[in-house]
Design goal:
Elements (H helix, E strand, L loop, with lengths): L1 H6 L24 E2 L23 E3 L11 H12 L8 E7 L4 H13 L7 E5 L2 E8 L2 E8 L4 E6 L3 H8 L4 E7 L2 E2 L4 H11 L17 E4 L8 E8 L4 E8 L2 E8 L3 E3 L2
Antiparallel strand pairs: 1-8, 2-6, 3-7, 3-8, 4-7, 5-6, 8-9, 10-11, 10-14, 11-12, 12-13
């Protein structure tokens, strides 16, 4: 296997990215990926046996129907996913994929596992996503977004057969590794990533889609319910300055993007 890994250590074709050139790597102390790019084959949809984060998009006002876990239950599940004492041979590895092909690669790996005799060597295939709130001209929208583009995480037992299964998947360009062998994530790295996925440390973004002179509706705060006119936009601070008329007098106010909405 080591000879095969060394054989795969060659330069990417022009136009392909390397780990060193990628700013979105989920770990910093990594050096290289084996680099033979895959090709796009038709993807066969399969159900993920583990309850991974589903792609979803929810317009403001809709309610979630999934049952919420208690904090202690969530903590226990996350700890088992970080390191299961009953399976010390399982570790999380980071796999480099073609950017934008993360879900396709995940589906292909799951299909390959299903068709092999290696099911006991794989526990989970995960595309790291987080919840993002965007404010656009159509209003506020909450969706899940890949926060490590070009990477997925696989919890697996590493050996020649499992390495070959993952490495041979279309769209995979290699494992994140040091030297010639894949290096697992540390428990702390896994815990930080899972916390972000589960929303315990959410990173909510607002797309600044307001322009000076535009009318907006104030949805919270002391001016809730009033209509205002945008005076200035501060993207770096995620705020806008508006002019709101109260009792016949124009008043200038600086508001968070979360406090305003598009007028219908």
């Amino acid at each position: 296997m080591e000879k095969e890994l060394e054989h795969n250590e060659r330069v990417l074709p022009e136009g392909e990215e390397t780990l060193a050139e990628t700013d979105d790597a989920p770990v910093t102390a990594r050096t290289a990926v084996d680099t033979e790019p895959g090709t796009d084959d038709p993807i066969i949809a399969v159900a993920d046996e583990e309850a991974s984060i589903a792609e979803a998009s929810t317009v403001e006002g809709e309610t979630e129907t999934d049952e919420q876990l208690q904090p202690e239950e969530l903590e226990r599940l996350i700890e088992l996913r970080v390191a299961d004492p009953g399976r010390p041979d399982l570790h999380w590895y980071v796999v480099h994929t073609l950017t934008g092909h993360e879900e396709k690669v995940k589906t292909s790996i799951l299909k390959s596992i299903q068709d092999s005799d290696l099911q006991d060597c794989f526990e989970e295939v995960l595309v790291p996503t987080e919840e993002v709130t965007k404010t656009t001209k159509k209003g506020k929208k909450t969706s899940r977004k890949v926060f490590f583009p070009g990477y997925i995480m696989v919890r697996m037992v590493i050996n020649e057969k499992t390495w070959s299964l993952v490495r041979g998947t279309p769209g995979v360009t290699g494992f994140v590794k040091t030297g010639t062998f894949p290096v697992p994530l540390s428990p702390e790295e896994v815990r930080i990533t899972l916390d972000q996925i589960e929303g315990r440390k959410p990173r909510v973004e607002y797309v600044v889609d307001f322009e000076p002179g535009e009318s907006v509706k104030i949805t919270s705060g002391p001016f809730a319910g009033f209509t205002a006119v945008v005076e200035d936009v501060y993207p770096e601070r995620q705020k806008i300055k508006v002019l709101v008329t109260v009792f016949g007098r124009a008043t200038s106010a600086e508001l968070e993007l979360s406090e305003v909405d598009k007028t219908r």
